[in-house]
Amino acid sequence: MPEGDVLYRTASTLQRWLAGREVTDATTAAKAMVGHTVEKVEANGKHLLIRFDSGHVLHTHLRMTGSWHVYSTGERWQRPANQARVTLTCGNRVAVCFNAPIVELLEPGAEANHPSLSGLGPDILGRPLHLDEIRTRARRRPPDTRLGELLLDQRVVAGIGNIWRCEALFLEGRNPWAPVSSLKDDEFDALVSTAARIMHESLGPFTGRPERWVYRRTGRPCRRCRTPIKSRGQGEQARTAYWCPTCQPGEVSSPKG
């Protein structure tokens, strides 16, 4: 699924074309917003929120399939119209959300009690980065929670996906299966800060895909020590963790964990 940096870019694009403009046409969940003004578009972790002057919020979660596009009115869409889950037209621009599994218009005030949104941890791309809050949430998890699973827990910190958890763990020399209790507070803060730093760097001017240290490099030599990179499913969803056994030493659990 798109990670926090992808959602950040998407929100920035929608903010540029929609914010401050009146909705002149809309479909499905957003139809009631015709005549209202888009106040702000923002990403919260992996959730995208379009806020209106009425207090309503259009919430989308793209998961693995969804994406937002912006077109000039009359411009040919890059995807079939039957894949559009919702559209928002503001003057000469139309924003189209394709194939998102979650599209819902929240009533004013409903966000605070939303089952997914209300429990989110601080956004990894937020400035300032709320390290104290993230650390507090992490310490509430069982002490044997593995670092690789913790970084994907959106209730601890929102926005980190599989790419950046693997890359941050490598850069900090932490094994994905190490328990959170193995890190001191300053070490945990360093890990989260590294994830934030490399994600912010990914938002810079496009100069070509940056080289990954470990992500999707199973069996290939580590760029630091030449040891073959390993990979294994981790956690209930068996998300693939990638690591260098030399640069990230530690005991690795069975494939089920």
What class would the helix/strand composition place it in? alpha+beta
Shape: elongated
The ordered H/E elements are HEEEEEEEEHHHHEE
Sheet-strand content, in percent, reads 15-25%
State the helical fraction.
Answer: 10-25%
Average pLDDT: 91
Strand order of the largest sheet: 1-6-7-5
Record field, number of beta strands: 10
- In angstroms, what separates the terminal alpha carbons? 21 Å
Annotation field: number of helices: 5
Radius of gyration, CA atoms, in whole angstroms:
20 Å
Largest sheet: 4 strands, antiparallel
Q: Give the oligomer, counting copies of the same chain as homo and different chains as hetero.
A: single chain
Which spans have pLDDT < 50 for at least 5 consecutive residues? none
Give a written overview of the molecule.
With 257 residues, the protein is of the alpha+beta class. The protein is 21% helix and 21% strand. It has a four-stranded antiparallel β-sheet with strand order 1-6-7-5, with helices on one face. It starts with a helix and ends in a 14-residue tail after the last strand. The relative contact order is 0.13. The model has no long low-confidence stretch (mean pLDDT 91).
What order do the helices and strands come in, and which of them pair?
Blueprint: H1 4-18, E1 25-26, E2 38-44, E3 47-52, E4 57-61, E5 67-72, E6 84-90, E7 93-98, E8 102-106, H2 131-139, H3 147-150, H4 162-171, H5 185-201, E9 230-234, E10 239-243
Antiparallel strand pairs: 1-6, 2-3, 3-4, 4-8, 5-7, 6-7, 9-10
Helix pairs in contact: 2-5, 4-5
